[in-house]
Amino acid sequence: MDHQDFIKKFRSSSIDRFESRQRIRSFSNFLDDFLSNPYPYLRNSPRYILDVFEHYGTEDVHRVGTMDRRWKLFDLEHSDLAENLVGQERVQNSIYMKLRQFARSGKGDRLLLLHGPNGSAKSTTINSIMEGMHQYSILPEGALYRFNWIFPEKNVETGRIGFEEGEPENSGSYAFLDPKDIGSIIRCELKDSPLLLIPRAERRELVEHALSLHPELSDKENFNFNWVFEYDLSQKSKWIYEALLGAHKGDWLEVMRHVQVERFFHSKKYRLGCISIEPQGNIDAQVRPIGFNGDAMPTILHGLPLYEVDGDLIAANRGLCEYSDFLKRPPETNKYLLTTSEKGTIQLPNFRAHLDLVLSGSANEKQLNMFKR
Fold first, then answer.
1. What is the mean pLDDT of the chain?
2. What is the C-alpha separation between 365 and 168, in angstroms, rounded?
3. For position 366, what pLDDT does the model report?
4. pLDDT tens by residue, 153-201
5. CA-CA 20 to 30 A from 9: which of 29, 87, 116, 338?
């Protein structure tokens, strides 16, 4: 094989992998998937991480004359084999039981603090969970979806542009536009679920109908999906949604034409849903005006007070956030975490965001004893 044969093979493999993972969907595709299998889309972060544990299963191990349950996700291969967790089955099971409580109540309303002497595998434990989340999110049963707002170039004729094979011709989704036909893309940095694009009353009706088609879900343990009825779009997406709804005189389907549903994958390396924050690390969250230049801003959005947020907590949303050496942080920097953990919100200048994540931290015994005093 010469280099051209390899290039053709790599291209074919890349296309097949992209299509098999359903990386890009229209909103109608998403709804079809939801009605076929609603469970994955009704999970919040605690339930998702619980599923990571349960997906890889357990094995019984003998430790000093006793039998312990070990979770196999801690045996997954890492890029650095030194990251594999040795022992610590009691810690594994304590984390699992806490995740069950969070999943049952529907929110991770406590910060999980792992404490012990230096070298007791606190960070390794969290890193192993994050690696499990990454590998699980690549699998079909671990799929996670967010959405983007797509605005076509002004000269683009709707016609058949943006249709996926098998979609009704009158849907006219912009989700599949060629890059040359896209005027601008506005991404949701909080990775909102596409379900939040449906008004609350209709959302409840849809979920109840989906559950009636899958009655087995009513018997599932530790599965609380009240968030789907309580949450709303993040602030920036809500402004865009309302602007489009007004421009189209209340036609919700016209608004959905601008929605591109995108699959994403948990990754600590690429800062998607798996974040470790050092004691003197970056700002946890901050807000700024949305970054558009000149004509890049769609006309329909001119004059709207659009802000976007970034920072470690935002990158961790819909996943797991670890505060390394948590008790080394100045206490005043942690005050907001009480509200964030209990209510799942963070208040910033000109912005209030709902967060769906599990918070964890690590501390050695010396730090913990000083904190207690």
1. 83
2. 62
3. 83
4. 876 644 444 444 444 444 588 988 888 888 889 999 999 999 999 999 9
5. 29
Query: Can you tell me the distance from the alpha carbon of 238 to that of 203, in angstroms, rounded to the nearest whole number?
Result: 16
How many other C-beta atoms can be found within 10 angstroms of the C-beta atom of residue 114? 20
Q: Which residues pair with 259 in a beta bridge?
A: 149
Helices (H), the chain: 3-20, 27-36, 45-56, 89-105, 122-138, 200-213, 227-230, 235-247, 252-256, 312-316, 336-343, 365-372
Encoded amino acid at 256, one letter: M
CA distances from 298 to 135, 148, 183, 185, 314 (A): 37, 14, 8, 10, 25
The residues with which 354 forms a beta bridge, in sequence order, are 345
CA pair distance 78, 268, nearest whole angstrom: 12
Q: Which residues of 292-320 are buried (b: 16+ CB within 10 A; e: fewer)?
A: eeeeebbeebeeeebbbbebbbbbbbbbb
Rounded CA-CA distance 31/54 in Å is: 27
**pTM over cut 0.90:** no
Q: How many angstroms separate the first and last alpha carbons of the chain? A: 69
Give the model confidence (pLDDT) of 32-58 as tens digits.
999 999 999 999 999 999 999 999 998
The structure tokens 């590998």 sit at: 135
